[in-house]
């Protein structure tokens, strides 16, 4: 599904990604862990076609990034640190707007259904500017999946969410997985990574320090792996 070969990204004479080689299979849910500055968000931005790599090859569903980035963009749902929502719009107005960009049929019905899925039906027509951080994040998640993307890229999606909202988000991710969506999630929350992900990738200094599958939601296993690769080494 996603093939990355010898990917590098340099900015301001600093090498942020240093020769990433990675294969992600269709339907996998993958957590990307690592300390600040490891290159996690940069990797997601490259995959989302928001920034160009300095060198290397990125292929998504058989399409090469350099030749097909517009087509690739349509396949991807992306949730960055910012919500990308229009704060004077309501949830339904935001979702209809973004859904129309992707040419979604019956966009209003889908938008209403997604607002319900993220638990905000009572606020369907309220301006987003009046929402709490957690409520905005819920609608931003709905925005990222309005077009039922084949690839979902999430950059610290649990930030600002209470426990109820975390459960809603996890259920959305699991539901997308059941539809065959491939998900990459940058996170500092080991617990959520262990609960919903099949696989863990640890980045350090722009390189893959470890790449392993996880079974039985084994949080302790994830923590030990991380400590070994990041905290236990300089």
UniProtKB/TrEMBL annotation:
InterPro entries assigned to the protein according to its UniProt record, in alphabetical order: AAA+_ATPase (IPR003593), ABC_transporter-like_ATP-bd (IPR003439), ABC_transporter_ATP-binding (IPR050763), P-loop_NTPase (IPR027417)
Listed CDD domains: ABC_DR_subfamily_A
MF annotations from Gene Ontology: ATP binding; ATP hydrolysis activity
Domain annotation ABC transporter: ranges: 2-230
Keyword annotations of the record: ATP-binding, Nucleotide-binding, Transport
Pfam families assigned: ABC_tran (PF00005)
PANTHER family: ABC TRANSPORTER ATP-BINDING PROTEIN, ABC TRANSPORTER ATP-BINDING PROTEIN NATA
Similarity section: Belongs to the ABC transporter superfamily.
Name of the protein this chain belongs to: Sodium ABC transporter ATP-binding protein
């Amino acid at each position: 599904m996603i093939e990355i070969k010898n990917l590098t990204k340099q900015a301001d004479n600093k090498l942020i990604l240093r020769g990433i080689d990675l294969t992600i299979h269709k339907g996998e849910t993958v957590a990307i862990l690592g300390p600040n500055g490891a290159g996690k968000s940069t990797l997601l931005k490259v995959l989302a076609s928001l920034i160009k790599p300095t060198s290397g090859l990125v292929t998504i569903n058989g399409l090469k990034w350099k030749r097909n980035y517009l087509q690739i963009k349509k396949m991807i749902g992306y949730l960055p640190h910012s919500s990308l929502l229009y704060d004077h719009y309501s949830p339904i107005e935001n979702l209809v707007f973004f859904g129309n960009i992707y040419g979604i049929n019956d966009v209003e019905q889908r938008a209403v259904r997604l607002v319900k899925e993220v638990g905000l039906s009572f606020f369907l027509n309220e301006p987003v500017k009046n929402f709490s951080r957690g409520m905005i994040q819920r609608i931003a998640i709905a925005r990222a999946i309005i077009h039922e993307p084949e690839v979902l890229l999430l950059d610290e999606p649990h930030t600002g969410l209470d426990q109820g909202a975390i459960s809603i988000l996890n259920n959305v991710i699991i539901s997308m997985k059941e539809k065959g969506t491939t998900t990459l999630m940058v996170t500092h929350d080991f617990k959520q990574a262990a609960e919903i992900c099949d696989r863990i990738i640890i980045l350090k200094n722009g390189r893959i320090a470890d790449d392993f599958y996880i079974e039985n939601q084994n949080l302790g296993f994830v923590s030990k792996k991380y400590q070994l690769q990041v905290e236990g080494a300089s």
